[in-house]
Structures are given as C-alpha cells and as structure tokens.
C-alpha cells in the first residue's frame, strides 16, 4: 500500500463500502476470525527525520500496512481522530515538543491506542520514563528491521485482539460493532425458534460534523457521550445501543414492532435532555437533532445483513427528506 502524506484530506467512507466491509469481517464466522489474525493496520509515524520516515514507510507498506506520515506533533490528535489510527510510532526528539509530551497528550483522549517510541537514546531512564508515561514499547535506533517489524505487528495483534474481545465502546459506553453482530445473530436465532419479533434502528447525529468543526473534537466527544447516555435513559433495560462508527449508532429493540420502536425514538427526538447534557458538559447551548431509519425482522429467511441494509436505507431517506426525523423502512417508497 502507498503511504498517505500529510496534509491529509478528511476521509469519508461510503456507507455501502462500510456495510460491505463490516459484513465480511463479522458475518463470515471462521473466515472473519482469520481476517483478524492477518490484520493490517493503519499506522501513524511522527518524525522530523525524512530519511527515517522513508525507511519506516518502506518497511511497513511492504508488509501491507497503511502508513500515514507526519513531522508536525501538533497535528497528531486530529490525524488520529480523522483516520482511525491503529498504532502510533513517535520519535522521542521532535520540533518544539518531544515523544513524552505527545504520548501524554494522546493518552488523554486515546487511552488504549498502542504507542511505540523511537529514540537514539539507549539510556535505561529514558525507556522507563516512556513506559511510565504510556508508551507500549521503546525501540532504540539504529534498529534491526525484522525486529522492528515483529514488535510493531505484535503490538498491533494484541490491540486488535483486545478490541475484538471488548463489548463496550470506551468513549460512549455504547456496545461495540463486534458485539452488535454477535447479538443480532443471537436475536435472529431466537426469532427462528420462537417467532418473537424484533426491530432495528440505524441512527445518525445530524450536526456532529458541525460540532467538531465549530467547537473542536473534545466538544464532539462530549456530544457523543451525551447522545448515548440520554438515548439509553429513554429505552428499556432490554434494548441495546451499539456504536456503529463515528456518530452512527444501531438500536436493537427485542420483542418490539417497528411501529413501537418508532414511537420510542420519536419521544426521544422531542426530548431536550440531549441538548441540555451537551450544554452542561461544554458550556455551549448547541441545537442538535438526529435522524433514524427503522425496520423489523421479515421472516425466518431474513438475514442480519438485509436487516441492517434496510435500516440504513430508511436512514438515508430520513436524511434526504431534511433530517431530524424517524422513518420506517416500509414507508420509504
């Protein structure tokens, strides 16, 4: 893969590609597990040494990883957030900063992201300081290429394995995508056995990009947390909220018709608690709405993939009709 050079244009993922990728990774059973074992990561490399950037780029792209290069330590947080970085490699000595400071900064918003620090210093105290601040590994330059690759890929594998085991999104408290697919298949199997209907809603925050652009990513994080906490308070204990990606969420309503799920989300849409929560966290009164698409199981031959696709299509229609509304798939025509 070719490296992506900074400055980086904001990445926008087409919804159909996202659904296709997630279906491949999470709905193919053992094949999906094999994909995780051969996972190729998106790696950020921060260094002001052009030669070192080129060496690391070559080594890691040859292994199939996607590499993002930067020499500006003050862009790191935005790069991580906008590009879903899986691992950061930081040089210890940086212009107007250092690897210690950047590691500490990353840890404030990304407590689980793997960080490897590179340094020409083999002093034990430097290694200990890096690890105490939050680095996962410390590699001394010059390094042996095969050893560096092994340590990078070991760190990546550990991170991906832990993410796969987790059921809760660290930022919002919603359930993870991995758990979404497991739970959907479980509910679908229960329907096949006992005929208990269920509904699924695909939900998207209408104003999330504007919050990030106007008030910054920290305010955006608070908006996400407020959305999930207030949404959960409007649901039953038996309902589930999953973070699908970015500002998109899936709500699973067991033993609920699409009409009743619609009533629940409409009540939440009229609730001011979300906006008040954002104000209490950020000090800013932000008018913010959401859109949602709903569908329900359509028989034993229905599939998890089709259910998600229908809910997504209904969400698309809600957006196309002006946002700030909840649409049932059957009424999309």
From TrEMBL:
It comes from Proteiniborus ethanoligenes. One of its GO terms (molecular function) is diguanylate cyclase activity. The modification 4-aspartylphosphate is found at residue 91. SUPFAM superfamilies: CheY-like, Nucleotide cyclase. SMART domains: GGDEF, REC. This is Stage 0 sporulation protein A homolog. Transmembrane segments: none annotated. Residues 42-156 form the Response regulatory domain.
